[in-house]
Design goal:
Strand order of the largest sheet: 1-9-8-5-2-3
Number of domains: 1
Strand content: 15-25%
CATH architecture: 3-Layer(aba) Sandwich
Number of helices: 6
Helix content: 25-40%
Shape: globular
Radius of gyration: 16 Å
CATH topology: Rossmann fold
CATH class: Alpha Beta
Length: about 230
Amino acid sequence: MTAVISPDLDTLARDGAERLCRRVRDIHAAGRRPRLLLTGGSAATSLYRHVDATAARWSNVEFWWGDERFVPEELPDRNDRQAREAFLERVGATPALVHRVADNDCSLSAHEAADRYAATLPAAPFDLALFGIGPDGHIASLFPGFPQLDETEADVVAVFDSPKPPPVRITMTFPRLNRSAAVWFIVSGADKAHAVARAIAADGDVHTTPARGVRGTAETLWLLDQAAAAHV
């Protein structure tokens, strides 16, 4: 595990965007189509806004999300809408390579939407998975004390009664997230500092701090601003 601390969110976002472009170029140079897992949240959205549309072949990148809010497509709090407006449309992502979770305007229940999304996942690991972390230590929509933390079979599950709105969500589980080659945490703000410290501490429990439960098979990188790193 490596932590890189930036003085502020803007510097963090610019550095993260440059790293992302380099990683995508490296995977293309190896002769493969990159498989990226995106996240929502303000810090990640800031990173997306700084991505250089000309710095990589974004039309040949495949995208998924680690979790999604099960709400209508037009609502701004959907993770895919945040990424689309800040990043995907601007860089020319290929729509057929952007895998969205079904919204709740369709005829699917949350459980059915989770199963359908699971069917879109690649057989191979994600090359890079991006995550934020909540002040409570949650990651994706895996919340402290929730039963989804103990899921060992399903790659994608529904979440009900989320402690932060909206209450219904779709999330990938630890078994699937931990098949990612690289995991990058993008975290900004003093309200996240205690959660970050718990997540990277030598000892702890994923039921208290779920972010402890996800690590890359080859790389785990924490991109932090100074406020989020206050207790590291």
